[in-house]
Design a protein that fits this description.
single chain; 15% strand; alpha/beta; 9-stranded mixed sheet; globular; Alkaline Phosphatase, subunit A; 29% helix
Amino acid sequence: MPDVTRKEFLASPAAGLWAAPQRAAGGGRPKNVLFLLSDQHRPLALSLLGEANAHTPAIDSLARSGLRFSQAYCTNPVCTPSRASLLTGLQTHNHGAVNNATPWPFEIKTMAHHFSRAGYISGLIGKMHFVDAQTHGFDYRLDFNDWFQYLGPKTKLYADELGRANSGSGLPIIDDLWRDFGDPWKGTREVDDRKGFVHVGRASKIAEQDHFDSFVARESIRFLRRFGNRHPFFLISSYLKPHDPFMPPERFANMYKAADMKLPSTYGKVDLTKVPKEIRNRIEVDAPNPEIKDPANAKQRIAMYYGNVAHLDDCIGRVLSVLRELDLEKDTIVLYSSDHGEMLGEHGMWQKFVFYEPSVGVPLIFRVPGMTQAGGVCTAPVSLVSLMATLLDLCGIPVPGGLDGDSIAPYLREPGRAPEKPVFAEFALRTKNAKYMIRRGDWKYCFYVGDTPELYNLAADPLEMNNLAHSPSHKDKVDELKAQLFAWHRPAELPA
């Protein structure tokens, strides 16, 4: 049989063999899936983990009733590539959506296709950053454009808060809509005093009930009430927060004061001679938000990030409450995660785009009725690329071949089992700044095309402040991990 690529297999008839709805254990109804997804949530920004600034009672409660993966990673620390991976089970170099401006290939099917063909109603409410108008298999979909229709003239408040076009924040949700004639909001926004295109952060002028995240929660609840006791469902309830703009509703902004915030212990402490040039440049100059070089502004940004986290948690809590009210908990797999993290001043850096733990790491929580032990923790490194295989596996739906991520259901049954495979990530593919990461055991190795590599022992150096890549005593470890990384995928940007 000739070799085929993953893309060719997933587009082939063999990948389209679908099963009838599978029944839950004991002969009951098929298991539902509620996937709560956020954007830019730092992996440790949970009050459950002792983070003093985090107010996350709803997510904490989910973790206490389910299993938390303490070392979960996205495949790519930016929205579109990461989300494409978690919905297709493919790494970026295989699904092809390499950045936030690249549409997801039509021929690659998502988990929504599989759930729909298996008899589920598949819903996507909120952000997914598809880049174009494809629905990618979802039967029921609401996104930013539906929110703008709800807002009507109040959409201008959001345009003002963004300050300029920003597809990552949903305005526009599809870049092509503005390409022919430009930004329709240009010249009409109320300009503030920001020095870059990202505001430091403040209380929002938008009423709490009108925020996108409030809209997503309400519409997710409407979906559950309409379909929850009529059809097996697969619902992704996908929030923008805590992503920019760091402008939470006033109630949540008032929970935090800049003066009470502390700068990270790594802030201003990085030895710039030992890190890649890219990292050094980002530490020295923050073009999107230059005023956060002032520690007072940095603390304000931290405060408003946690205000966003608090609002996100409040919205999630309302959805989970209705799931309980409708008596759907016993039949519903619930998971919570985020598409990537946020540096939030760690190493003197902000946003994502790097392989440090606060950026490439994500929270990941599963609650599976009859399987997960309440309050469990799995310390094995896992990747969001495994979510497609895992959810199909848990629901008894055939898992297609050719995926990059295996089911992590065995960890749900046995959290203490030994890690089986390394975790990989990649960023900026097809550019001169491409970079790749492997995490195996306590070690993390990062390869930069044309730049300095990084090697960290996360057990001895969890803050990743001591780059060992050029230490003679660690040459064997560098060679070993680099070889394994290149065996997984040799950077296409290197000369043949």
